[in-house]
Amino acid sequence: MKNILLPTDFSENSWNAISYALHLFKDEICTFHLLHTYTPIVYHVEYVMVSTSQFDLADVIREQALKSLRDFETRIQETFNNPKHHFESKAVFNTLTLEISEQVKENKIDYVVMGTKGATGAKEILFGSNTVHVFKQVKCPVLAVPDGFKFEPSLDILFPTDYEIDYQNKQIQPIVELSKSYQSTVHVLNVSYGKDLTEEQKRNMAKLGSLFKNITSRFHSVKNQEITKAISDFQNKTRIDLLVMINNKHSFFENLFFKSTINQIGFHLNIPFLVIPSKMANN
């Protein structure tokens, strides 16, 4: 049984991500954990020490959140009504990233699924700040679903990599599971800058090939291109339904995202993006 965490702020953006998750795992027995976090702006510790009104305010906000969670559950049951899916809801006074990290450990979460829409809603913004922090800090695969993206039963996967990772089964397992579930092809895309692969990279490539031995995979190589352009160009030539990267400290994922501005990386991601941490909380 899978445990899937679904953070929600009750927006249509988060409902869209929830809908995607329910479609994606429709054939699997899952517990979906609906999570809403709240941190009232007026909450300050020094006030709580002298006034109970702050507690009252927190209680009101919590009750409103629980009602909205119940409404979301009702909407899910009316829309999907999948007997394989069980739901648990929680409203918590905490920051989103800290609470997600706690939930990942406490409930042995397999995936976090959330929307990507930034607070501004501007077209050039790829990820909101919440998604950025979750990518950086949560030790669990995180699936970010673009605003308005609708699930389709095909699921061909693009997996860009520089072969600088000593791939482990636990990192690759989500890709293999999804590929098997949807009989999809995994396109491995290596982007290099004119140099031949080192012996270490060749070993890692061979290891990746062995980890993908039971699924359909194709290996591609592109030279002298920016990674963002390589991804965009590949998408233009080949139908891709899911982008996957491993967040490894020394891989180009970190260079691409965390040493620059993650929400303005130079291309518009219009498909779901699965980020797999190099180290998992539950392994």
From TrEMBL:
Q: Which Gene3D superfamilies match?
A: HUPs
**In this protein, which residues make up the domain named UspA?**
1-146
Stored InterPro entries: Rossmann-like_a/b/a_fold (IPR014729), Universal_stress_UspA (IPR006015), UspA (IPR006016)
Family per record: Belongs to the universal stress protein A family.
State what protein this is by name: Putative universal stress protein UspA
